[in-house]
Amino acid sequence: MYFEVRGEKTYCSNGTGSIDPNRQSVVFVHGAGLDHSTFVLASRHFARQKFNVYAIDLPGHGRSDGVALDSINELAKWLRDALEALEIKQTSLIGYSMGSLICLQFAADYPEYLRSMALVGTSIPMPVSDPLLNAAKDNSHEAFDMANTWSHSKIAQLGGNENPGISMMMSGQRLLEASREDVFFADLKACNEFTNSLELAEQISIKTLVFVGDQDQMTTPVKALKVAESIPNCEVIYLSPAGHAMFSEHPNAVLDGLIKII
Fold this sequence. Notes:
It is a single chain. The chain is α/β, with parallel strands linked by helices. The chain has a single domain, classed as Rossmann fold (3-Layer(aba) Sandwich), CATH 3.40.50. It contains 12 helices and 8 strands. The chain has helices at about 40-50, 70-85, 100-110, 130-135, 140-150, 155, 170-175, 185-190, 200, 220-230, 245-250, 250-260, and strands spanning about 1-5, 10-15, 25-30, 50-55, 90-95, 115-120, 205-215, 235-240. Strands 1-2-4-3-5-6-7-8 form an 8-stranded mixed β-sheet, sandwiched between helices. Helix 3 links the parallel strand 5 (about 90-95) and strand 6 (about 115-120).
């Protein structure tokens, strides 16, 4: 469905479901260079379970108009405006990678909107290596190659998939390639320049679930666990073998975890 945020056309997937104001809501926030399709399995499941599902394309991503915002704080404010536009009063919030930072900032600033939260592939801070950042700034395909490789565990890089007939590596590459010029750099810049400390996580009062991949090279397990330890009411799901792309590598395990908290 399309709706308007700050005067710009914005897209979100409802997981093939309909919207009913009497149902509970679930909002998904994607990572750098990605879009709503990251959450296909989970969004469809919760739509079938009679939740209102909103897998949102951030500005400049996927089917949404606008320019990509290069600040996590600004993205959190934008997300608040999106929820207002959708007339969502309370929701569960699921964030992947960059989306997890947006969710953390949102939860600290606007806790009244949230029922629960899940973070997949998270870290505070979330530094980006110079080679990746510079390649993205130049709109070089090398940025996609690096990010895609580092996002998958060693076994995932060899091939195979829990979903028959689908290549995880190629799916990840094609999704990044579909992003518009300068969008990946804006996203990575937002992550790299996010200056809040773990004190942000300590402010989170809602029930939270953190997914940790044992071979995650983008947001290392040590840093993800520190985020989880800093959140007062938090549970951890540790996936192995798993890289950063947990929605691709372990779709069923991630879904099982989300079911518990949503």
